[in-house]
Amino acid sequence: MIGAIIAIFLATTMLPSDSGNEISYPDFLDRVTEGGIVQGTYNNNSGSIKATAVDGTEYASNGPLPLPDADTALINEHVPEFRYETPETNFFLSILPLLLPIGLLILFFWWMQRRAQGQMGSIMSIGRSRAKTYTTERPGTTFDDVAGYEGVKQEITEIVDFLKTPERFAEIGARVPKGVLLVGPPGTGKTLIAKAVAGEAGVPFLSVTGSDFMEMFVGVGASRVRDLFQSARKMGKAIIFIDEVDSIGRKRGAGLGGGHDEREQTLNQMLSEMDGFEGSEGIVMMAATNRPDILDPALLRPGRFDRQVVVPLPELSDRHAILEVHVKGKRTAENLDLNVVARGTPGMSGADLANLINEAALYAVREGDEEIGARHVEMARDRVIMGQKRESLALTDDEKEAIAYHEAGHAVCAAVLPTADPLHKVTIIPSGMALGVTMQLPEEDRHIYRSDYIRDRLVVMFGGRIAEELVFGISSTGAADDLMRATALARSMVREWGMSTEIGPMAWGSQNQVFLGEDLVQTRDYSDETARVIDEETERILREQQERCLQTLTEYRYGLDLVARALLEHETISGEEVDRLIAVSREGSRAGDGADTTPSARAPSGDDGAPRADMPSGDDSPPGAEGNGAGAPSSVPSSTA
C-alpha cells in the first residue's frame, strides 16, 4: 500500500501533462513583442510558462528563474492578462527523501525477523502446540478407506460409538478408555486407522508427533502439551493423536548417566493432563508406536493408555484387500491376479505393498507398456526383496558353474523335502548383494513353526554348501551367510524353543542388544556347564541336518545336475521347472540311465578342480531365498522359522 501511494504521487508530479505546443523562450518573447499573446501564466517555482495566442493556440515554454526585469516589463506591456503564480509545495514530496531510507530500514528488520522465525520459531509463540487440526469440514478418512484389519476396526468401534453417542455410556455408568495405544510394525497403517476413527465419529482430529514437543528451550515441551489439551477442550469432542509416542514416553531415568530432564518434564505434564480431564468430556487420546517395550509404565497404567490395540502385519486376505486399494486408478492387465500377488508377499506391510505396486507401474512405464501386468509385479517383487539385478557383473565360467550348483542344491532340497515351503524360482543372476537366489513362497501365512519344518529349513540352508562339496570335492565362501543363519536358527531351537532332548523344556530367551544401558554388561542366567551343553546340542543339530542334506542330494544327484545345467543355460528357472527336472531324474534313475553325474562344465579353477577360495560372495540374500551369499530379513516371503 505504501508503495502504491508513493507511485501515485510520483506519477502526478513527474508524468508530462498536456501543456500545448512547446516553444523556446526567445520565440515566446518574439511572439509577445509582435502582440500575438493575449494571456499567460508564469510559475515562480519552476519557471514554466503557459500562454494563449490570439487565435486560441496554447503554447508552453520554460523561462529563467527569476525573470529578468526587462523581460517582465516587456511581458506586462504587450500581454493584457499575464499572471505570476507561486503554487504551494507538496508536503509529501518534501518529506519523501526522509521516508525512503526509514522505510528501507523497516523492511530490512522485518525480513530479519521472518528469517529468525523460520529458524527457531517466533519467540512469542514458542510454547504453542504444533498439532495439525483436521476438522469435520475437511474430507475425512473412514473405515472404508482402511483395507482389511477387520479385527482392529471392531476393537476400536466402541471409541467411535462413544464419541457419537456418549449418553448411551453415561446412562449405564460405563467409562470408555481415555487412551488407546496402537502397537504394530512400521508401515501397517496405524496413523490411517486413527484418522479413520475421527472420520467415523465426525469430530476434530489433532495430529502431532512426539518429536514436535521437544525444543532447544527448557520447558517448551510441557508448555506445548498444555496448549494441546487446551485446544482440544475448546473443541468439545476431539481426538488427540500422538504419533511415535515413544520419543517422549520412554522410561524415565533409564540410560547411562540418568534420564533426559526435558523429555521427562514433557512426559510428566502429559500424564497430569491425561489425569485432568474426565472421560465424559469427549476427548480421546490415541497414540502409535512400534516400541511398546520401552514406554514408561506410568503411561500404560489404567486411566491413561489403558487399552492396547495391536495392528499386525496384514494376513493373506488383508493383503488382497490392500492391493485392491492400491491398484485403483491404475491400468492393470487381465493376467494380473491379486490373489497370487498376495500369496507371494507374506510379511509385507501396507506400505510395502503400496511400494510394490508403484514399482510395478514404474517397470511398465520403463518398458513402454500401457498396463501393469503380472510380469511387472514379479519384477517389482524381485527388486524389493532381492535388490536390483546386477546383470553387468562379470563372472567367470568357473564362478557361474559353482553358483549354479550352489543354487541347484538349495532348489533340490526345497523341492523334495516334505515340509519345506514350495519353491518359486531359482536364478543365478546377481541381485543386490547375492550372486544367486533360490526363492520359496509359503502357501499360507505361518504363525507357529513345527520342529520338523525347522529341520527341513536347515537342510535347505545346507543345500548350497553340500552341493559344492558333492560335485567339486571342496567348499567355498559362498555359503557364509547360510551357515550364520543356520547356526542362529539351531541355537534358537536349543536356547529358546526347548527342541533339544539334552537340554529339555528350558528356555533362556534371546540375547538382544542392551537398551539405553539398563544393563551395562550382557548377563546370562545359566552356568558354564549349561553353555557347553547348548553349544554341543547346537552342533549336533547342525551336523544331523547336514548329513540329511548330503543323503538327499546324493539320492537326487542326477536331478541336481539337471537343475544346474538348466540354470547355466537359462539363468532363471521356475519352481515348476525344477519339479519337472527332478521327476525326469527319478524316471531316469529307475530306467538305469541316470548314471551321468559329471559336471556339465569344467570345475572351477584350482589345483584339485575345486572352487577358488577367494570366490566373491554376497553379504545378504532375500528371505526364503537361499543362495550363494544369500541371506534375508524375516519380513519377506520366507520359510525361515
Structure in words:
- It is a single chain.
- Helices cover 46% and strands 11% of the residues.
- The chain is an alpha/beta fold.
- The protein has 4 domains: 70 residues, Signal recognition particle alu RNA binding heterodimer, srp9/1 (2-Layer Sandwich), CATH 3.30.720; 179 residues, Rossmann fold (3-Layer(aba) Sandwich), CATH 3.40.50; 71 residues, Orthogonal Bundle (Helicase, Ruva Protein, domain 3), CATH 1.10.8; 230 residues, Up-down Bundle (Methane Monooxygenase Hydroxylase, Chain G, domain 1), CATH 1.20.58.760.
- The strands form 3 sheets. It has a 6-stranded mixed β-sheet with strand order 6-8-9-10-7-11, with helices on both faces. A 5-stranded mixed β-sheet has the order 1-4-3-2-5, with helices on one face.
Which helices and strands, and how do they pair?
Layout: H1 2-14, E1 21-22, H2 25-33, E2 37-43, E3 48-53, E4 58-62, H3 69-78, E5 81-85, H4 91-120, E6 132-134, H5 150-164, H6 166-172, E7 179-183, H7 190-201, E8 205-209, H8 220-235, E9 238-243, H9 261-276, E10 283-289, H10 297-300, E11 307-310, H11 316-326, H12 338-343, H13 350-366, H14 374-386, H15 397-416, E12 423-427, E13 437-440, H16 451-472, H17 480-495, H18 528-555, H19 557-570, E14 572-574, H20 575-591, E15 625-626
Helix pairs in contact: 5-6, 5-7, 8-9, 11-13, 13-14, 15-16, 15-19, 15-20, 16-17, 16-18, 17-18, 19-20
Features:
alpha/beta, elongated, Rossmann fold, 20 helices, Signal recognition particle alu RNA binding heterodimer, srp9/1, Helicase, Ruva Protein, domain 3, 641 residues, 5-stranded mixed β-sheet, disordered C terminus
